[in-house]
Amino acid sequence: MTRRGYLPILLVLAVLALLPFAVTSNVVLNFVVFVLIITLAAQGWNLLGGVGGQSSFGHAAFFGTGAYVSAILQVRFGINAWVATAVAVAAGAAVGWIIGFLSFRAGLRGSYFALVTLAFAEVLRILANAAGFTGGAAGLLMKLDVGFWNMQFTSRAAFLWLALGFVAVGLIVSQMIANSRFGAQLVAVRENEEAARALGVDVLSVKLKAITVSAALTAVAGCLYLQYFLYIDANIAYGLWISVEALLAPMVGGRGLVLGPIIGAFTLHGLGEASKLLAGRVPGIDLAAYGAVLILVVAFAPGGVLGLLRKLRFRSQPVAKTAEETA
Amino acid sequence: MLEVKDITMRFGGLTAVGGASLKVDKGRIVGLIGPNGAGKTTLFAIIAGFLDPTAGRVIFEGSDITPLPAHERAKLGIARTFQIVQPFAGLDVRENIAVGAYLRHARAAEAHAKAEAVARRVGLGGDLDKQASSLTVAGRKRLELARALATEPKLLLLDEVLAGLNPSEIRDIVPVIRAIRDEGVTILMIEHVMQAVMNLCDEVYVLAQGKMIAQGTPREVCVDPHVVEAYLGKGAADRLRAEEASHA
After folding, report:
1. Which of B80, B106, B129 is opposite residue A198, by nearest beta carbon?
2. How far is CA B236 from the centre of its chain?
3. Cβ atoms A6, A323 nearer than 8 A
4. CA A311, CA A195: separation in Å to the nearest integer?
5. Which stretches make up the ABC transporter domain (chain B) (predicted)?
6. Closest by Cα among B39, B41, B37, B34 to B230
7. Do residues B42 and B92 touch, judged by C-beta distance below 8 A?
8. Are B147 and A199 in contact (CB < 8 Å)?
9. DSSP letter (8 states) at residue A176
């Protein structure tokens, strides 16, 4: 049981890891790195919103905390990038726990929880925009100093591997959770809280664990964004865009499924780029494509891309039960 | 094993349960019956920790568990089923039962093995891979029972597990409940199906309008005038007796 589900993960990781050997175009590699960063944020969202059913609309709070804490430690205190990243991820997890404690203890669910997380993210955005030590509206610019110890690389491929490494950790953590007691309890909470309580599930502690791990993963995405673009401001780090990206990718890929975020992120951004190529320079055409994809997914494939694939495969072999189905 | 002392539960101005007490001894099947709206399910929810009573105490194995939340009580060995079945609809039968089994088995392999064993015991052995949402009413009732059993309870609270089943399905599940008791699980059950109550219960409590109005063996309780009146209306017991006398 515990080894189940790792093969497809390995396959996806292998393809992406070998990509820089086949493609050298910086445009493509840039695209892949960016999508991997989105994937990480989305993996965090998927754990809480997909597996646990607690849809957050404010994962920017964790992304931004990761980015800002790391940036401030490096820019203001000259701390090593790797150490700063570790501290920043811990800070993101702490913010997750605090937001979770405040909202879950109050019994907030569904759209109420979504709205409260949105409010937290917005408050953080406004604070970061106003405060002095965050650089205010001007944001924080990192010093360009390429080197492994500064987590800065000239080669796009090196950064791709770094991001892929973190995505791999995210995938393995997600799969381990899916195969574990914690995962089963989290799914039970999503499906029916009352029944879960009756079976001895401590609902509050399960939710808190989920939001903490979720926030940590999304904070990693924030740190990577910083290391890649070397600049953040409040509207990037705590902006609504990342909250939306983090929740769209799992919805499109397959909510609650381990590979959902990565499949969704590549599908969405792949289609976005493709529509840009096809439609030429119509401004915002990729966003319009997002909207169309989202409407199609919600209307025709509520299980996302993976759910759709599974449905098609079931139609061709209706009796056999696949390994992934139970994984 | 379980003692409920003077439980009162008020919802605003409505007193759902007013000073009800009951006692369940180890190894017995105790029934809780009463007309609709008597407060049976409310009392169950209080015993299982889903509601905080306005007054009164719940004693389990000698210790006061009134302040404990539901999941802590499950750990102590109290499991409940729901009158309106609450399956994890998106999961299959094995996964549903495994959530209960995880309470005492941390490892996935053990929890799944336990879930399969419990499923076979309640007659769901052939449905392990079915989605819970695709089960029949009888199947869902069995699933409800299986999940509770998978937590390896000492005390099992069954809230109308027979309601909505046809006579042959009831005949199938009654021996399952008796077997559970014979394996050492104490059972407190709310039930409307009198045939099953007469068959299964060692002792019956009758709740009407939030008050315990009778207690005794199923046979004693059935002829108790208070009970007859609670179900059929005031004066019904006298009328019945008068009719019987005139026939004699």
Report:
1. B80
2. 28
3. no
4. 29
5. 2-234
6. B34
7. no
8. yes
9. H
CATH entry 3.40.50.2300 includes domain B1-67+154-218: no
| Chain A hits for B69, Cβ within 8 Å | 197, 202
* Contact status, residue B23 vs residue B4, Cβ threshold 8 Å: yes
Residue among B1, B49, B60, B48 nearest B28 (CA):
B1
- A121 contacts A60 by C-beta, under 8 angstroms: yes
Confidence bin at B245 (pLDDT 50/70/90): confident
Identify the sign of the CA torsion A200, A205, A210, A211. positive
Q: Is A323 touching B (CB cutoff 8 A)?
A: no
* CA distance readout (Å), A19 to A15, A26, B68, B194: 6, 12, 55, 70
Q: What are the residue ranges in chain A where pLDDT is below 50? A: 1-2, 318-327
Strand partners, B79: B156
Beta-carbon count within 10 A of B68 CB: 17
Name B207's bridge partners: B212
Give all strands of the β-sheet with B55-60 in edge-to-edge order.
B14-24, B2-11, B55-60, B63-64
Question: Which of these, A143, A118, A130, A1, lies nearest to A61 by C-alpha position?
Answer: A118
Return d(Cα A266, Cα A101) in angstroms, integer. 33
Tokens of A150: 């500064």
| Sequence-distant (≥ 6) Cβ neighbours of residue A187 within 8 angstroms | A51, A52, A256, B88, B90, B91, B95, B99
What CA dihedral angle connects A171, A297, B92 and B73, to 10 degrees? 70
Q: Which two tokens stand for residue B13?
A: 């101005």
Q: Are B79 and A199 an interchain contact pair (Cβ–Cβ within 8 Å)?
A: yes
Q: Are A251 and A42 in contact (CB under 8 A)?
A: no
What is the residue extent of each domain of chain A?
6-243
Q: Is the distance from CB of A50 to CB of A255 less than 8 angstroms?
A: yes
Q: Measure Cα distances from A38 to A212, A215, A218, A253, A257 in Å.
A: 18, 14, 9, 13, 16
Q: Tens of pLDDT along A300-322?
A: 888 899 988 888 877 665 444 44
Cα separation, A83 vs A88, whole angstroms: 8
Q: Which one of A191, A192, A201 has the shortest CB-CB distance to B71? A: A201
Asked if A187 is an interface residue toward chain B (Cβ–Cβ < 8 A), one would say yes
